[in-house]
Amino acid sequence: MINCPDLQEDVSLWVDGELDLTRAETVKRHLECCPECAAFNRDMNAIRQGVERLEPIEPPDRLWKSIRFQLEAEGRIRSKPKEPFWAAIVPRNFPDLKPAWSGAILALFLGIGSLLVYDLTTPSPVVPVPAASTSHQEAVLEELRKAEANYRAAIEALSASSREKLESLDPVLAQVFHDNLATMDYYLNECKQAVENSPQNPLAHRYLLAAYQKKVELMQTIVTSDSLL
Amino acid sequence: MTEAQAIAGCVAGDPQAFEVLYNMHKRRVYSLCMRMVRDPAEAEDLSQEAFMQLFRKIGTFRGDSAFSTWMHRLTVNIILMRIRKKGLDQVSLDQDRDDGQDLPPREYGSEDIDLLGVVDRITLEKAIAALPRGYRTVFVLHDIEGYEHNEIARMMGCSVGNSKSQLFKARLKLRSLLLEKKPKLEKKQLKASR
After folding, report:
1. Which of residues 66-105 of B touch A (CB under 8 A)?
2. Quick one: CATH architecture of B121-193?
C-alpha cells in the first residue's frame, strides 16, 4: 500500500525530473487516484512557476560607491591622468568652444606667467622709468589704487550672485569654476606681489589690472553660465 | 564594451571596465545574497566582498567556464563561508533536526487545496525569506539559482541524498507558508472585486 507522505518526496523529485522510470510510473498512477497528492503535485509546479517569475533585486547605488572606494584604496583602479586646468575650465557640454577657450586661457596664463617671471628676474625695469617726479609716481600709484578699487567693487558686486549661481550649478561644473577662480586668485596675488616689489614698474601695474580684468570676466561667465548650457 | 573587453580592462586597471562588469552582474549577485541572508545590510556587505574577491582574482580567470558561472560560484562560497562562520540559525544538513515540527500538518482527506493563483512574486519572496536558513539555502541554490544536487552537496559538504531531502522539506514548508497566506489573499481579492 502506498504511503502518501513518503510518495510526496518522490513527487518533489518527479517535478525535477530526478526519478527513475519505475518510480515515476508509480507516482503517475498514484496521482490519478489521490486528490491530496495531485494537489501537492500542482503546488510543486505552481511554486516552480512562481520561482521562474521572480525578478532580480536591484542593489542600492551606494554599493558601487563602496566597491569603487575600496578598489581605489587597494590601488586596483588606475587613476585618470589629471586634465590640464584650461581643459577643465570649459564645460563638457559645450565642446564647440573648447579649442577657443583653451587657447585663450592658455595664452592668458602663459602671458601673465612669463611676464611675471620676466618682471621678477629682471633687475631693472625693461621700460626705462623716466625720472619722474615723486608727485608723478604718487599720481600713477593713486590711479592704480583707484582702478584696483573699481575692480574690487566689481568683484564684490559679482561675488554674491556668482556664489548663488555656483550653488545651483551641476556640482562638476561648479567645481571647475571653483578651481579656476582659485587659479585666478593665485595669479592675482602674484601680480600684487610684483607691484609691491616694483611699485614703479608699469608692466607690473598692467598685469595686475589684467589679472583683475580676467577675474571679473570669469565671474561674469559664472553668473551668465545658463547661456552656456 | 563586451564582457570579455571588460574583463581585460579590469586586469589592466581601467575604472570604466570595473563599473561595466559590476553593472552586468550586480543584480544577480545582490539577489542571491539577499535571498540567502535576508538582511539588506548583510547582503550589501556580502555583495561587496564578492565583487572585491572577483576583482582581486580576475587575472586568474582562464575562461574554462562562463564568467557568470565563475562569479556566481565565488559568491555562493562567500555566502556559505559567512553562514558557517556566523553559525546563525542554520539547519545542519547532516542531521535531520526537523522532527516534523517545522513541517505543515498533513490533512489527508481534507478538501482539495492548492496554490494556483496564490504564488505571486511578492508573496513567494516573503515565504522564501521566512524559511529556516538551512532549507532556504538549498531551496535558493537549487530552485532559484539552478544548481544540481551534486554541486550543492559539494559546496555544502553534505551528501546528495541530504540535499534532496532538505529541498523536499523546504518545498513542503514553503507550501505551508503560502497556504497560510491564501485566506488573506482571497479576502483581499474579494474586497478588490466589490
Report:
1. none
2. Orthogonal Bundle (1.10)
